[in-house]
Amino acid sequence: MSLFQLVENISNSQLKSDLPDLKVGKVVRVNVKLADVSSKTNSKKRVQSFTGTIISKRGGGINTTVTVRRVARGVGVERIFPIHSPELDSIEII
Asked: What are φ and ψ of residue 88, in 5° steps?
């Protein structure tokens, strides 16, 4: 087995299979797991949601990312999410 095949096998094992059909223009809610930094001794996790419109989808395989844009208090906010990241809790199409 070559090194390339080994890397491909590891990457394919980490791909998420429960993702919806993500296309540019769809409105989605992305839930991301965040570590709470307020407590220094206990590492608490919380889930933060980000709702907006997909404006870009890039990459392929394990490196696929989506850019989601929303307008919060009159200011446009864009976030880039790697969709196969373990920190990504879920993506829902609204």
From this structure: -85, 120
Provide the 10 A C-beta neighbour count for residue 30. 20
Q: What is the pTM of this model?
A: 0.80
Q: What domains does the chain contain, in order, with CATH numbers?
A: 3-93 (2.30.30.790)
Tokens coding 31: 């839930």
DSSP state of 9: H
Which one, of 42, 27, 47, 36, lies nearest residue 88 by Cα?
Answer: 47
C-beta neighbour count of 58 within 10 angstroms: 10
Check: CB of residue 31 under 8 Å from CB of residue 18.
Answer: no
**Count of Cβ atoms closer than 10 Å to residue 16 Cβ:** 14
Residue 86 has phi, psi (to 5 degrees) of -70, -20
Question: How do residues 74-91 score in pLDDT, each as one tens digit?
Answer: 999 999 999 999 899 999
